[in-house]
Write a structure and sequence with these properties.
Layout lengths: L4 E4 L5 H11 L5 E4 L3 H7 L11 H8 L4 E4 L2 H7 L2 E4 L19 H13 L4 E5 L7 H9 L7 E5 L9 H6 L4 E4 L4 H15 L7 E4 L1 H32 L3 H9 L20 H14 L3 H28 L8 E5 L14 H11 L3 E5 L4 H7 L5 E3 L3 H5 L4 E4 L4 H4 L3 H7 L5 E4 L6 H7 L2 E4 L4
Parallel strand pairs: 1-2, 1-4, 2-3, 4-5, 5-6, 7-8, 9-10, 9-12, 10-11, 12-13, 13-14
Helix pairs in contact: 1-3, 5-6, 9-11, 9-12, 11-12, 12-13
The structure holds nicotinamide-adenine-dinucleotide and uridine-5'-diphosphate-glucuronic acid.
Length: 448
């Protein structure tokens, strides 16, 4: 039917994005398809494969009405004329560009399936984050079937996990890049109509395809760069007696700098910042822009350094030996309000603590299933109850900024720990003086 929508890839991005489109465009049918049968079964069950505040309500309101989750990829391609591609684009682990370039095998496979199954003209929309000029490669694959017209648009997604539904409902901007041809303009107009159902038109930006592809990488690189910048200052604060939260507050009140993304901590995690900055580094190198590549690579190096510093400070505070000591990690998700542990700083820190022969117990309100998978084979305890996790611990490291942790009875936790009890608040969640008054030795990031 005209205007119906398919999305290939039912992951963190495809599921929530399409659920919101289905909610806001009840006249359109939305088909979310994936080759992963277990994931589709989960989307059709009570236990969705992704945890996001508000997601379940949206899915339950639309599922079976105009939102469908299916493994019938060919059927969705035939049924719909707007086809989003939201497959994963991880960092390549092999061959040319290993460790930097985006692995485009899933993306190309999706393009080939669209070309093979299409029964008419289609608008193909890049929702995945991709290197600049991927749309060219996409068009080349699609044109292996010249009997149909395929128009490739770029429509990158800017939502953040943990606030995905809110971000989708009230985006700062929606970006649509399209070819400057009659077919391109018509496709951009068709996609604009989808978003205009709930997004004010002045927030729907249209650009050429390459600007759109690059803007997504640039936005993530700028955000990651701010975190590495404030974390670089946190190291300087620790040796000079400055307080990084005070410095961030001063910076943030300058309207030219702004207050967001200035929270020092264990460094950025999540599936995208590292992969997208690495992809940008690779792109710069491909074009011979060595200094640009080195500049952005520094953002990643600083992030890795921050995690090493946290381990070094822990070892130092525990009298230069962790052997046999019990350390409780509070939080394993890469940020609060998600169960996602992809590239979580907690994993990098846990691995280094294990190298120091610490005994680890991990607690997290949402991420324990993923934590168990990430640390399979390691001698680590997992514990839902933070009070039990703290029992007999020499130290607690707060690694995720869960609001729940503020509400705990910290006097009770202190009593349960081995003395002297160390609390390393890597997210700077707590008032240090209050914890010290309870008896804790306290460390924080960027604090004297
Ligand atoms: P994901 O791994 O959660 O989901 C990708 C899905 O695509 C998987 O379920 C996989 O089975 C499926 N898939 C892969 N190849 C397929 C094929 N050929 N046919 C059918 N299904 C296929 O990944 P994600 O986190 O949703 O990210 C997807 C893209 O969106 C990435 O490019 C990412 O950079 C971008 N992105 C993600 C976020 C986020 O918050 N996670 C935000 C913005 C952009
Ligand atoms: C990020 C971007 O914010 C989204 O706009 C983008 O769409 C997405 O990546 C993507 O392309 O995947 P996300 O990774 O889900 O979203 O979450 P963020 O809120 O950006 O947090 C990323 C990491 O930075 C987390 O580990 C978080 O704890 C850390 N962070 C964030 C800080 O250490 N300090 C801050 O001030 C902000």
């Amino acid at each position: 039917m005209a205007g119906d929508i398919a999305c290939i890839g039912a992951g963190y991005i495809g599921g929530p994005t399409m659920a919101v489109i289905a909610k806001m465009c009840p006249e359109r049918q939305v088909w979310v398809v994936d080759c992963d049968e277990a994931k589709i079964a989960a989307w059709n069950s009570e236990e969705l494969p992704v945890y996001e505040p508000g997601l379940k309500e949206v899915v339950l309101a639309c599922r079976g009405r105009n939102l469908f989750f299916s493994t019938d990829i060919a059927g969705a391609i035939r049924r719909c004329d707007l086809i989003f591609v939201g497959v994963n684009t991880p960092t390549k682990t092999f061959g040319e560009g290993a460790g930097y370039a985006s692995d485009l095998q899933f993306w190309e496979a999706a393009a080939r399936t669209i070309a093979a199954e299409a029964n008419g003209d289609k608008v193909v929309i890049e929702k995945s984050t991709l290197p600049v000029r991927t749309a060219d490669a996409m068009a080349a694959v699609l044109h292996t079937h010249p009997e149909h017209t395929f128009t490739v648009l770029s429509n990158p997604e800017f939502l953040a996990e943990g606030s995905a539904i809110e971000d989708l409902l009230h985006p700062d901007r929606v970006l649509i890049g399209g070819p400057e041809t009659p077919a391109g303009r018509a496709a951009v107009a068709a996609l604009t109509e989808v978003y205009a159902a709930w997004v004010p038109r002045e927030r729907i930006l249209t650009t050429n395809v390459w600007s759109s592809e690059l803007s997504k990488l640039a936005a993530n690189a700028m955000l990651a760069q701010r975190i590495s910048s404030i974390n670089a200052f946190s190291a300087l604060c620790e040796v000079t007696g400055a307080d990084v939260d005070e410095v961030a507050n001063v910076l943030g009140m300058d309207r030219r700098i702004g207050p967001h993304f200035l929270k020092a901590g264990p460094g950025f995690g999540g599936s995208c910042f590292k992969k997208d900055v690495l992809s940008l580094v690779y792109l710069c190198r491909q074009f011979g822009l060595t200094e640009c590549a080195d500049y952005w690579e520094g953002v990643i190096r600083m992030n890795e350094r921050q995690q090493r510093r946290i381990v070094e400070r822990t070892v130092h505070a525990l009298f230069n030996t962790l052997s046999g000591k019990r350390l409780a990690l509070f939080g394993f998700a890469f940020k609060a309000n998600t169960g996602d542990t992809r590239e979580t700083p907690a994993l990098a820190i846990a691995r280094r603590l294990l190298e120091e022969r610490a005994q680890l117990v991990i607690t997290d309100p949402r991420a324990l299933p993923n934590a168990r998978r990430d640390l399979a084979g390691e001698a680590v305890d997992f514990c839902e109850d933070p009070y039990r996790a703290a029992e007999g611990a020499d130290a607690i490291l707060i690694l995720t900024e869960w609001a729940e942790y503020r509400a705990l009875d910290w006097a009770r936790i202190y009593r349960a720990m081995r003395k002297p009890a160390l609390l390393f608040d890597t997210r700077n969640l707590f008032d240090q003086a209050a914890l010290k008054a309870l008896g804790f030795r306290v460390l924080a990031v960027g604090k004297p």
